[in-house]
Write a structure and sequence with these properties.
A hairpin with a 2-residue loop joins strand 2 and strand 3. The protein contains six helices and three strands, in the order ααβααββαα. The relative contact order is 0.18. A three-stranded mixed sheet has the order 1-2-3. The chain is globular. The longest helix is centred in the C-terminal third of the chain and has 26 residues. The chain is mostly helical and 176 residues long.
Amino acid sequence: MFPGAKVLAAELDAEFPITRRVVERVPTDKLAWQPHAKSMSLGQLAQHLALIAGNVARMAQTDGLDVATRPSTYASGESTSAILATFDQSVAASKAALADLDEARAAATWRMTFGEREIFALPRISVMRLMCLNHMIHHRGELVVYLRLLDVPVPVVYGRSADENPFAQPAARAAG
């Protein structure tokens, strides 16, 4: 694995457990819930988040994506356990793709288009970081807001949450 892929892999290895912790909190009985009519449902958002890591693998294997051919809505996960299984498969695929990525392929241009219109063209490794790592963190943040609105205890993402404090003394941790 070349150095740029090692750096991205290390960042993903740090973010994947955090993302999994957030997805673990998704209540299966609330998958159809939406905070707003224009928002994805909880199940759609969680399923989308679970699939993002696998995009690393797809981006490593292709030279671009025509978003005009993509569905405009996302499928909902069937259950929290099914969403977690999808996430775990997605993580494994991304790790394998990065392990196989050589420097020439990483530096090659990857294009996002909408039909004939080019949205952007960047080195593949940059797109993998932007569209996978940053995209995952963005949607994880949305999912945390959904959990808060549903009054589900929010896990630690960075530092502490209002529900968990890893810095507190052990007796204080139990109290929140």
